[in-house]
Amino acid sequence: MTALSLKDLDISYGDTQITHKVSLDIAEGESFALVGESGSGKSTVLKAIAGLAPRWTGEIHVLGKARGHGVDRDFSRVCQMVFQDPYGSLHPRKTVDATLGEALTIHGIGDRSARVEEVMGSVGLDRKFRFRFPHQLSGGQRQRVAIARALILKPKILLLDEPTSALDVSVQAEILNLLKRLRREQNLTFLMVTHNLPVVSFLCDRLAVMRQGRIVEVAGVDELKRGNLKEPYSRELMQISAAHAT
Amino acid sequence: MRPLLEIENLRITFPTARGDIDVVRGVSFTLGRERLGIVGESGSGKSMTGRSILKLVRAPGRVTADKLAFDGIDLSTRSEKQMRSIRGARISMVMQDPKFSLNPVMTIGEQIAEALLTHKRLPRREVNDRVQTMLESVRITDPERVARLYPHEVSGGMGQRVMIAMMLIPEPDLLIADEPTSALDVSVQAQVLDIIDELVRRKGMGLIFISHDLNLVSSYCDRILVMNTGEVVEECKAGELMNATHPYTRGLIASIPRLDETRDELPVLDRSAWAKA
Questions:
Q1: Taking the model in full, what pTM does it have?
Q2: Cβ A201–B266 below 8 Å, yes or no?
């Protein structure tokens, strides 16, 4: 079944049109990457799906249901987003407990304490962190909180916006392993935005290369591993990436 | 030939409620007119090491060293006033994020000119010419227009090139680049580093490149220091990084995913194995 389907998506900020006719189909349980440089519109696509960029035309279907332009609670239950910068995406004056519990309150879900502890356990955060503030946590721990916040409603789809680019390589490895394990355990569908091709190679099944608001190529990750991307622009990205590999 | 920079037994200490904490513990190295990379994770003390060279570690932090000499000048005895004639003119530093490091209410041209005029009196025509040439050398195609823009009107990559222009216009002998590209995306990263590399080679400067990215450092430096919890754990030539022996360095290398990744799980550092409390 298709988890996420975009058809002819044109997204605008004010009068500026950012994406042009973006169409994608992502199967349930698949891990899909959107790659491209800054300004290519890849993050904007995620924002539109999450409802943070409401000026779009075209169609967004999530698990077979069309998504409207407004806030949609049923939608929030199945699809959640993790942001790039764990230093900026957590409320500085709310404890981990308050951050995680807020979603439960909004959706009128009881059993709060048990749910918070369960989700903290699944992202590998010790119970002692529950009543701490973000400034008392390291970058990796904060990103775990951000992932836990997204997972507490038990969504089916996670939108990941550069989830590891603000982290050290050793911490990046921990978060990537965590995401991989969570996807396996909870049968999640990932749509991840990144400019890091090796991360795609580790975590994803398919990728789409975006440039100036358009998808220029969709390929399987095996094509990436073998260096078989077809479009000249995709090959250029691959070469930049390979030049810095050791 | 006398080395450009000599550091022996550098210690940086911060007082906390639970007693003093050494964030840098006995770091020693010398630098000629070469490109030195310092790599390590957050909290390894790499940025503090860079800042201490310019005496930018603020109180209550304390810096002590058996030797801290730049081109024969003993930096540890310099006053703030004397340091101001060294900062910028002889040693300069490119910071991480152009968004926070450029003055938002001055045009780019004025800021670059200021860097020059702080150290030298020059006629206005010559200042303008040098600003234009400098912007051209960081590959800004329309320098006259860009000089009139404010920092918020340019992209991150261009902002970083402006900062490099500003740092290099007084023609310093040593450039410290602290994560100069981590706020930029990959395609622009390479471009910015190529510019730094070219200018450093052409002017025969020394470069200290501080980064957490092992791959980047090994492709742009001659020599690498790996830091962990305030100490240098490994020193090697950039080309020999793959033969590194210290378990920390090997752990860092192994944790980076590859383009042709086949491992199902990435190895994670076991910090308890070698970190001293």
A1: 0.81
A2: no
